[in-house]
Amino acid sequence: MDDRYGEGLRVRREVLGDDHVDRALAGTTEFTADFQDLITRYAWGEIWTRPGLDRRTRSCVTLTALVARGHLEELAMHVRAALRNGLTPDEIKEVLLQTAVYCGVPAANAAFAVAQRVMAENQDDCP
């Protein structure tokens, strides 16, 4: 295991949680193995480990990007990650309100529905 992969796996687990990462890795096939390696080394080992932004800020940026692109399944995962990274439900609400202006009201409307569902499911974990 190279340093970027190992560091990426550590950060991926801290941000997304062991259960999620274990499921993702357990579902790895010969076809998806290179992709799992890529996202662990590149997204988590190169980008999420950079010192220029803290994890809370990275979560805000990630939520916005996912809303803008309409990636609602990934959005749910990253709402949970944002809570784990210390964002409050009110801060997540503010990020989503911001996306309404810059990404569009329909995109923000869908995002609010996803975030509300995730927060209700993770009520005990919300600050």
What is the rounded distance between the termini? 35 Å
Q: What is the tally of beta strands? A: 0
Question: How many domains is the backbone divided into?
Answer: 2
Largest sheet: none
CATH architecture of the largest domain: Up-down Bundle
Q: Bin the helical content.
A: over 70%
Average pLDDT, all residues: 95
Instruction: Describe the global form.
Output: globular
- What's the helix-strand series? HHHHHHH
Strand proportion, as a percent range, falls in: under 5%
Low-confidence stretches: none
SS content category: mainly alpha
Write the CATH homologous superfamily of the largest domain.
AhpD-like
CATH class of the largest domain: Mainly Alpha
Number of helices: 7
Rg, Cα atoms, Å = 15 Å
Q: What is the CATH topology assignment of the largest domain?
A: AhpD-like
Oligomer: single chain
InterPro entries: 4CMD/NDH-1_regulator, AhpD-like, CMD-like, Decarb_PcaC
Domain Carboxymuconolactone decarboxylase-like: 34-116
EC number: 4.1.1.44
Protein name: 4-carboxymuconolactone decarboxylase
